[in-house]
Amino acid sequence: MIERQVAYINEDNCIGCAICIEVCPFDAIIGAQNFSHRINFNECPGCKICIKKCPTDCIKMIKVSQNKDDIKEKVKFNFTRREIRKKNLQKEYADNISKQLDKLLEN
Ligand code: SF4
Ligand code: SF4
After folding, report:
1. Which atom of ligand 2 is nearest to the CA of 9?
2. Total structural domains within the chain
3. Per residue of the chain (107 residues), what is the pLDDT tens digit?
4. What average pLDDT is seen over the chain?
5. What distance in angstroms lies between residue 41's CA and the mean position of ligand 1's atoms?
């Protein structure tokens, strides 16, 4: 077990802007627009990017004790998942744009 720092959201002050979800490189934050957000600390390596971006200053670092191997696996898994999702989204946008262009050109 090791002790490490992870980010934690004080949900009372979270306005649900979802900025933290956008900026988290490890996909460790859960929440929907306009609802309070949470950080899955198992998947947070503690980069602190979300803290700098939160407009209400409701994210802080806390200490947790965890198994070292578990942390590596989870963080790696999430990083890959985020990259895959980004690629899929880009493809979806490109497909939509080309469909809309096709429609426009039909008329
Ligand atoms: S500290 Fe970094 S990894 Fe952890 S939730 Fe914030 S942005 Fe994500
Ligand atoms: S950036 Fe801050 S206020 Fe916005 S959703 Fe995340 S924790 Fe809540």
Report:
1. 7
2. 1
3. 888 899 999 999 999 999 999 999 888 999 999 999 999 988 888 999 999 999 999 999 999 988 878 777 877 787 788 788 888 888 887 888 788 878 877 76
4. 88
5. 9
Q: Where residue 94 sits, what CATH number does that domain have? A: 3.30.70.20
- Choose one of 6, 8, 9 to mutate for the ligand 2 pocket test, by most ligand atoms within 8 angstroms of C-beta: 9
Q: In the chain, what's the furthest Cα-to-Cα distance?
A: 65
